[in-house]
Design a protein that fits this description.
Blueprint lengths: L17 H12 L5 H20 L8 H28 L9
Amino acid sequence: MAVAQPKLEKEGDDCSLLPLVHDIIKCMDKDSQDVHQELAKLKAKIQEAREQISNMPGIDSSPSEQQQQLATLREQVRTKNQLLQKYKSLCMFDVPKAS
């Protein structure tokens, strides 16, 4: 039941809007003509954030559906852990010792 997840942002990518807002304020203080360019960058960043949010896995599920799915997954993990413990206790496998 593996779900293909979209490629996430690289760790170094900054999703903060604050630097762009700061640049806009600086341009306004200087009476610069670059304000429109900085505003366009901010709009693009906001649109990019909206697209990322709409592509997030589970965004189309209700909170109750997500809770149900989480409970199911936790039960699967619990069952698999029990099976692992059972098979470990059987000692059917010879585990070579690392030297």
